[in-house]
Amino acid sequence: MLDNLKKYQIILASNSPRRKELMSGLGVDYTIRTLPDVDESYPDTLAGAEIPEFIAREKADAYRAMMKPGELLVTADTIVWLDGKVLGKPEGREGAIEMLRTLSGKSHQVFTGVCLTTTEWQKSFTASSDVQFDILSEDEIQYYIDRYQPLDKAGAYGVQEWIGYIGVKSISGSFYNIMGLPIQKLYGELKNL
């Protein structure tokens, strides 16, 4: 599949094990390239879906100077959006506990921005999923935080982990988007290059 990609060397610019797993699931050959400390700040005039797409483009721009012709770079960023605010990666255990308390019993959105970049062009898009959490007990929150250490995850949770099994009541949209890469939408974009 995706024979049209044979003209590219695909590069996934991500440290995320979940994004690596999802890219591998597409069955395309790719390599990993990461830079330390890419700036993930954004203008405060942006909201919701605009934020991760902006950051995905910023990540791509950090790599552009070192790209070679024939390379296709994939960058992405995921945020949890609740009540008009971003829940990014938590700061420490207490920050993670507070995030899950905030998400408990509520519906929120997960936005992932993806940017495809070559030396000649750049294209970006965003996917959105709605997630409804059940009410989480204090014991459930602390068990999850202590056992799974979700400090590298937006919103302090991984939908594919224990908290997703017991806490997610419903999802509207892509499950894989919530994991960090809207793989079906990415496949469609890659197919049409």
Question: How many distinct beta strands?
Answer: 7
Number of helical elements: 7
Which residue ranges are poorly predicted, with pLDDT under 50 across at least 5 consecutive positions? none
Straight-line N-to-C gap:
13 Å
The arrangement of helices and strands along the chain is: EHEHEEHEEHHEHH
Sheet of most strands:
7 strands, mixed
Strand content: 25-35%
Give the helix proportion (percent range): 25-40%
Overall average pLDDT: 96
The coarse silhouette is globular
Rg, nearest Å: 17 Å
Class based on secondary structure composition and strand pairing: alpha/beta
Q: How would you characterize this protein structure?
A:
The mean pLDDT is 96. This protein has helices spanning 17-25, 50-64, 92-103, 138-148, 162-167, 175-179, 183-191, and strands spanning 9-12, 30-32, 71-82, 85-87, 107-117, 122-133, 168-172. Strands 1, 2, 3, 4, 5, 6 and 7 form a 7-stranded mixed β-sheet that branches. Helix 3 (92-103) packs across helix 4. The protein is globular and about 50 Å long. By secondary structure, it is an alpha/beta fold. The chain is built from 7 helices and 7 strands; from the N terminus they run βαβαββαββααβαα. The chain is 35% helix and 26% strand. The relative contact order is 0.18. Strand 5 (107-117) and strand 6 form a beta hairpin.
